[in-house]
């Protein structure tokens, strides 16, 4: 299913990969109000849909939006409650970039009415598609894994101290998926030596992971935040085919473990 707002590839395995920050489109009425830096949409999860393209071969469903997180952040709740209280973060309709700079020119940020309209236009269709696909897969298999696929620059002092590990697995502190799935994914990470990893570190999972993850009801949700240096150039945003090829076997092993868990449950 493809619309102006999203592309949903329906697979037959008990796995849905959601990639909510892959979009880059910004309507002209919004783009004209952005700072020069923000018009480059630097906080995009660049190329993540390409990174996970192989997952179609595994039978996974993939859900990818067309629009930038600067229009509305699909991984925030509609009430815009902070995911990380007390820490610097960005909101439902971000006004601050990941580097701390402004998204909008002075006086051009959206007001409450515009934010509500963006939620209706962009946020709700994505979440409706996500919920419907989870329900379809759960009905077919009894259990489904929701894989939240993300990436971010590995060094961003405004958001976190020091260097972010390469692979950052989040399960909302163990609340969004079963202990057995977290252990299975942890074994995959421990078995490889090419990347440093952490579980439930700085990124424990955003709104989608926390909201939809209901392991007792047959939905396990996991977020993987990848440091972009693992597969691209963080300055130019250019895809690095050699780095991406090296990362793919690890991602494939993680998704195989997720599918295997759902099928055994």
Provide an overview of this structure:
By secondary structure, the protein is an alpha/beta fold. Helix 4 (179-191) runs antiparallel to helix 6 (241-264). It has a seven-stranded mixed sheet, sandwiched between helices. Strand 5 (167-170), helix 4 and strand 6 (197-199) form a beta-alpha-beta unit. Helix content is 31%, strand content 14%. The chain starts with 5 loop residues before the first strand and ends with a helix.
Summarize the structure.
This protein has helices spanning 28-31, 48-51, 112-141, 179-191, 207-212, 241-264, and strands spanning 6-9, 15-18, 61-65, 144-152, 167-170, 197-199, 219-227.
User: What summary fits the major beta sheet?
Assistant: 7 strands, mixed
Shape: globular
Relative helix content:
25-40%
List the uncertain runs: none
How large is the count of helical segments? Answer: 6
Report the average pLDDT across residues.
96
Gyration radius, to the nearest Å?
Answer: 18 Å
**What fraction of residues sit in β-strands?**
5-15%
Q: List how many beta strands DSSP finds.
A: 7
Measure the end-to-end span.
29 Å
Order of helices and strands: EEHHEHEEHEHEH
For the biggest β-sheet, the strand order reads 1-3-2-4-7-5-6
Structural category: alpha/beta
């Amino acid at each position: 299913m493809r619309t102006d707002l999203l592309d949903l590839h329906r697979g037959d395995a008990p796995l849905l990969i959601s990639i909510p920050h892959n979009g880059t489109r910004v309507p002209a009425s919004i783009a004209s109000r952005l700072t020069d830096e923000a018009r480059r949409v630097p906080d995009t999860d660049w190329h993540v849909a390409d990174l996970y393209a192989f997952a179609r071969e595994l039978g996974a469903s993939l859900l990818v939006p067309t629009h930038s997180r600067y229009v509305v952040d699909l991984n925030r709740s509609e009430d815009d409650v902070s995911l990380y209280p007390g820490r610097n973060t960005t909101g439902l309709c971000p006004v601050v970039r990941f580097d701390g700079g402004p998204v909008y020119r002075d006086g051009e940020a959206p007001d409450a009415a515009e934010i509500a309209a963006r939620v209706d236009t962009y946020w709700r269709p994505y979440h409706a598609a996500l919920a419907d696909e989870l329900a379809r897969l759960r009905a077919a298999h009894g259990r489904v894994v929701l894989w939240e696929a993300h990436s971010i620059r590995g060094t961003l002092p405004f958001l976190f101290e020091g260097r972010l590990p390469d692979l950052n697995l989040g399960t909302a502190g163990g609340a969004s998926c079963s202990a057995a799935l977290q252990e299975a994914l942890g074994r995959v990470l421990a078995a490889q030596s090419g990347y440093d990893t952490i579980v439930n570190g700085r990124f424990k999972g955003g709104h989608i992971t926390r909201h939809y993850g209901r392991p007792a009801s047959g939905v396990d949700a996991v977020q993987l935040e990848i440091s972009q240096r693992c597969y691209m150039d963080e300055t130019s945003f250019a895809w690095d085919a050699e780095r991406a090829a090296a990362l793919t076997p690890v991602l494939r092993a993680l998704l195989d473990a997720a599918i295997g868990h759902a099928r055994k449950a």
